């Protein structure tokens, strides 16, 4: 029974995280099927992450108010229902709403599942579940783009959601059977509703401004100005309310701890650059370089393979080597990989592009754990869980914001480079009035402009990783207050993408 429950929880954890990576190569096909611009299709991934971010700080309330079994079953059933809507609808707004529900429900299952493992079993039996949890934590996100690309080209993108439904329902039913009668006494803790509302308004307004900015001309639009003001004001009210709240939604006082502040800032911007460039790699190569979803997935496969090795080594060495050193090494490795990608001055072949992914994969497994260890330094028990919820919100918010920010930079730089390349090759009028030859010239210019913009984005990301690495020099040496190594690793994996 112990093994079965752990397998079911591990499967559910795998399913939720798999959807975060497998959906990326599907975005161009989703846009075509729903009849929208790819920029609108990006919203379905960014808002998925945003909903997941809001789920982490509210999961504890669901857990205490309704219990493990009811909360877990309801979340997986909601995930299955949202997947059914995504699989069937051809309406963009229904699809977007379903992705938001899917993200929130999936986000709820992650901390609740870990709570089940930590509460129900003795340390000896708990190790089985935590081991499966660790495997499920890193495998789906790294392998997701490859398998998602295969599903897209072979079966069609809707099959991701068709496959979600029976698995999510099975996890819900088996969890209900195994957990019935084993609930802890229900408590009725207060939920920080004002804090939740302020946070929801702030994140929704700011993310909407980022998503819509490129489409409606940024600051030339009154809508963008309005959303930015609302989002900033709500964020200020949220901070003021949380700082003085008796039962805060997020423990903002942790920011007074130097290591937590440094780790939180580093985690947010690392997630932003990582997810933004990952989305650009997967979507951009399909739209501008003509790669299929399966080929893009194969391009990222070495990163998935080598990341598992680096994750294993990082967890082993994290207790013996200064986390600041491990974090700096990984960030420098990512910076080197980004500089490498940005160095191509022509269209690179598949073989040339795969080597930077191998380099990045060697450091991916060690990218997030040191930052999380630095942030949680000196925390244990309930404080460590509250810190984990805060870090989760920051990490997922960084992922959600990274997609539209990087996409906007890419579009702007592509337009700029196309303008200057056009000037050097003749006027726009002469290009488009010269039949086939000029059409090919136009395609070449647009393709080359996109490549130059692609290089610039990775050049910026490389410097971003370098700045985060230098920030770690200001952190204090990490103190592991949690005596159980496996519990500490599970909490760290809870924050990893």
Folded structure, characterized:
The protein is an all-alpha fold. It has 3 domains: about 1-180, Growth Hormone, Chain: A (Up-down Bundle), CATH 1.20.1250; about 195-250, no CATH class; about 250-425 and about 435-495, MFS general substrate transporter like domains (Growth Hormone, Chain: A), CATH 1.20.1250. About 80% of the residues lie in helices and about 0% in strands. The chain has 17 helices and no strands. The protein has helices at about 1-20, 25-35, 40-90, 90-120, 125-155, 160-180, 195-215, 220-245, 260-285, 295-315, 325-340, 350-365, 370-375, 380-425, 430, 435-470, 485-495. Helix 1 (about 1-20) packs parallel to helix 5. The protein is globular and about 70 Å long. The two termini are about 30 Å apart. Keywords: Cell membrane, Membrane, Transmembrane, Transmembrane helix, Transport. Belongs to the major facilitator superfamily. EmrB family. It is found in: Cell membrane. One of its GO terms (cellular component) is plasma membrane. Its main location: membrane.
